[in-house]
Amino acid sequence: MENRFLRIILLIDKGSDIMEILYKPLDLNLMWQSPIGWRNPLEDTLVNPAIHGSFLDYYGGGWQDIAPSAGGNPVVFKGAKLGVHGESAMLPWKCVVEEDSNDKVSAYLHVDGVRYPFRIEKHITIYENESRIYFKERLMNRANQAMEFSWLQHPAFGEPFLEPGCRIELPHGSRVIVIEENENPYGRIKPGEYEWPMVMSKSGSMIDLSKIPGRELVAEETSFITDFEEGRYAIVNEKMQLEFRMVWEKNVFKCLWFWQNYNRPDYPWYGEAWNIALEPCTSYPAGLPEQVKNGTALKLVGKGYVETDLTAEVIDLRLGKNF
Question: In the chain, count of helices (H) and strands (E)?
Fold first, then answer.
């Protein structure tokens, strides 16, 4: 999909991943490209399937719709064995071009779960003279019984757009929750609750989460941001005079996951990854059973559904914020 400002590439055979949001005037892809590369799970079936699922083996970066269990842990819920980040990002989606005119391009995509009775539908639309992407999405419970779930938008950003000194802007009043990750030796932040953007490191120094750190840092962690006045954030690269902005409905995506992944050693990136992801989500912490226990998982009656809208926009600050 493309117009005069943007080119968007989606991988229909794998999760409908958005592997590219290219800003044409600068020939710049804002989406992170993992050193793993892009692999098609329909063609590259692993002979040694991992007990945690195959998400990380096939995670090429970009932007995924994650359901019905958001989080970096395999879980079992209502008898369904779900790997890291559920199953929607590992399934092939179906796609129909709804409109392809000089002024507007729109596509309809959908997927049905295999181990969990959900369906995700989304309409993606761009207009010729805008650098904004419009998403209209619906998640449905196909079962007769009520079902809990979590739903995560998973856009990851990397170089060259993301670089040391970039700034993250969040609404006033945002609160940061950090939970101890027992199996992660690379987390920097002391568990607790903080007012954005300042948090305390495990060594006692203060960290400003709104500023992207130096390229030499070795760290990997996820924090959960809540209590924002509006569902929106911006990532600003002052050197490039470029901004990425996302706006969503906070009554559906009530929290924001902030994943920082800086040169982490060992599987799956072996020190080669340097990226962040800012991920609107229905729930926290990681994993559907924990989200149910925490009271943040959504629950749909049999045959029920939830609908939501969100937008993503690339803003060229050289042209003004509302060109």
Answer: 1, 24
Return the half-sphere exposure (C-beta side, CA atoms, 13 A cut-off) of residue 34: 25
CB 106 within 8 A of CB 276: no
Residue 213, Cβ density class (10 Å: 0-12 exposed, 13-18 middle, ≥19 buried): middle
Three-class SS of 231-246: CEEEEEECCCCEEEEE
Q: How large is the average pLDDT for residues 248-253? A: 97
> Coil, strand, or helix at residue 311?
strand
**Phi, psi dihedral angles at 256 (to 5 degrees):** -130, 120
**Domain range list for the chain:** 6-316
* DSSP code per residue over 262-279: ES--STTTTT--EEEEEE
CA distance 139 to 150: 10
- 123-153 burial, b at 16+ Cβ within 10 Å, e below that, comes to bbbbbeebbbbbbebebbbbbeeebbbbbbb
Which 8-state DSSP code applies to residue 103? Answer: S
CATH number of the structural domain 6-316: 2.70.98.10
Entry pTM: 0.96
Residue 86: burial class (beta carbons within 10 Å; 0-12, 13-18, 19+): buried
323-to-52, 58, 132, 136 alpha-carbon distances in Å:
45, 37, 11, 23
The answer to whether 40 and 13 are in contact (CB under 8 A) is yes
CA–CA distances in Å: residue 284 to residues 56, 69, 255, 299: 20, 10, 7, 14
Helix, strand, coil percent values for the chain (each to nearest 5): 5, 45, 50
pLDDT at 145 over 70: yes
Q: How far is CA 303 from CA 34, 97, 144, 161, 233, in A?
A: 37, 26, 6, 42, 33
Percent of the chain at pLDDT above 70? 97
